[in-house]
Specification:
The complex is a heterodimer of chains A (385) and B (86). By secondary structure, chain A is of the alpha+beta class. Chain A is built from 14 helices and 15 strands. In chain A, helix 2 crosses helix 4. The chains are: A alpha+beta (385), B mainly alpha (86).
């Protein structure tokens, strides 16, 4: 009986299984009745995930059903995958999110991985290699992985993929620098008591820095204005933005709305905000999507801007977040805007890796040049718990 | 046959000296024995290319060819570009 995504739960697709079948287990498309076992696998691999996010079992399953099977880009030729053992246990999973992108004004098919996980007790089955090999052999023009850890990166590169170093750089801008430093110290058990004790002093120092005329952390009302960004306007902005970029995503009303809904439901990072930025003449100069997190680090999902307006857009973002209590703002670097981020006192650092694989070397060279509009919105980040 | 035995010896040495893995025999099932997981596997691919000049593309990657040292040796010997210089 085919499930909602169109895959039979009893007969694996021969075209996928033939590369990876062995006497122990096999790779096949994920089916609807796999979801409970995928949830169990996620709990085994990430035992802390449930504590910080979705509270109920049904919400956990509903979220996984949505991102694995009910998203707008479902495609039978690029299904999410599971690795199951001979006894029926699912010990590996690789989510696949197909999407359309435009490369030098030509449409291409892209597939991004998410929730790539293997049960630690089953790693000798090479489930990870089998899943990734099946995925990379798919019909997509470009395969992407974002938020990859070192282990995934090694396996990905071992199978012929590459690391996009420019898109693996993160930026952070401290808005309340003393409290940001203390915030980081509080994560170290041995230093946490001192950091907590110094919090009042941190407040005082940051208040002084925000007012000091020559301080890098002085906050003043930006010269540009912001308003809530709706989906239709954002599609127009993306279309404008795509003109100067060699590679960017192609969305429609439905797919963008779905993404916004998913982002709005993520509770762990703060309140999801979408802001359109206009200049003094009320002309649109950019936009940003981020999670406002008062008292914490606000994570940015996407920033878009004209080249000569990026610094104004950043000023607006930083002021917007600072005014509502954020101690820092952080995001994935857009290489094209690196000078602007550095000019605005952002520090650059590592985090997770962005990986790519394609049979077309020209496509990979495009990504190496750093002119692709590749942001967290296109990757795995929105789909996490 | 003797060249294949020699190749098995070189691959066994690669496992023990470069990868710190002691493989009991050339017919040991590397996967079932838990000696090779995904990370070790891709490391093996890199070392095989470095040592023997064999590049395995994604399309020709069949895990069965790497199940034992004997199978790896047979696969390596069949590859174009294989360097068998001692």
């Amino acid at each position: 009986m085919p499930n909602r995504a169109g895959f039979s739960t009893s007969q694996p697709l021969e075209v996928i299984a033939s590369h990876t079948r062995d006497r122990v287990g096999q790779v096949r498309p994920l089916a609807e009745d796999d979801i409970p076992r995928v949830v169990e696998l996620h709990r085994r691999v990430y035992p802390n995930a449930e504590k910080i996010s979705l509270r109920t079992e049904s919400a956990y399953r509903a979220h996984f059903e949505e991102i694995f099977l009910r998203h707008p880009w479902c495609d039978e030729a690029m299904p999410s995958l599971v690795y199951h053992e001979g006894d029926g246990r699912i010990t590996g999973c690789l989510g696949v999110m197909p999407c359309r992108m435009s490369w030098d004004r030509r449409p291409i098919q892209v597939a991004t991985t998410h929730h790539f996980m293997v049960d630690p007790s089953s790693r000798s089955t090479l489930a990870g290699v089998r899943l990734l090999k099946t995925f990379l052999a798919g019909p997509q023009d470009l395969s992407l992985a974002t938020e990859a850890n070192n282990m995934s990166r090694k396996v990905w590169e071992g199978l012929g993929g590459k690391t996009l170093l420019l898109y693996s750089i993160r930026w952070t801008r401290a808005l309340r620098p003393s409290r940001f430093v203390l915030f980081r110290l509080e994560t170290r058990r041995s230093l946490a008591p001192f950091a907590l004790a110094l919090r009042p002093l941190g407040w005082v120092i940051d208040a002084a820095l925000a007012r000091a005329p020559r301080s890098h952390f002085q906050q003043s009302v930006p010269r540009v204005s912001g308003e809530d960004l709706d989906g239709e306007t954002m599609l127009g902005c993306l279309h404008e933005c795509s003109r100067g970029r060699s590679l960017c995503s192609v969305y429609d009303d439905g797919s963008l709305k779905w993404l916004f809904d998913i982002l709005a439901r993520k509770e762990t990072d703060g309140t999801f905000r979408k802001v359109l930025v206009r200049n003094l003449k009320q002309k649109i100069i950019g936009w940003y999507l981020y999670y406002l997190n008062p008292g914490g680090v606000s994570e940015v999902v996407q920033i878009g801007a004209k080249d000569d307006s990026i610094e104004d857009v950043l000023d607006h973002l930083f002021y917007h977040a600072w005014r509502q209590g954020a101690i820092a703002v952080s995001g994935q670097l857009d290489p094209r805007f690196m000078p602007a981020f550095l000019a605005k006192q952002c520090f650059l650092h590592g985090g997770s890796w962005t990986l790519a694989h394609s049979r077309n070397p020209d496509l990979l060279r495009t990504l190496d040049r750093g002119n692709a509009f590749l942001t967290r919105l296109e990757g795995e980040w929105p789909l996490g718990l | 046959m003797s060249s294949l035995n020699g190749l098995c010896d070189r691959i066994t040495a690669l496992f023990s000296e470069q990868m710190n893995l002691a493989v009991p025999s050339v017919d040991t099932d590397l996967f079932d024995a838990g000696l090779v997981d995904s990370l070790v596997f891709v490391d093996l691919l890199v070392r095989l290319e470095r040592e023997f000049g064999i590049h395995v593309s994604l399309d020709e990657l069949e895990l069965e060819n790497f199940r034992s040292i004997a199978k790896i040796a047979a696969f390596a010997a069949s590859k174009n570009g294989f360097k068998n210089a001692e």
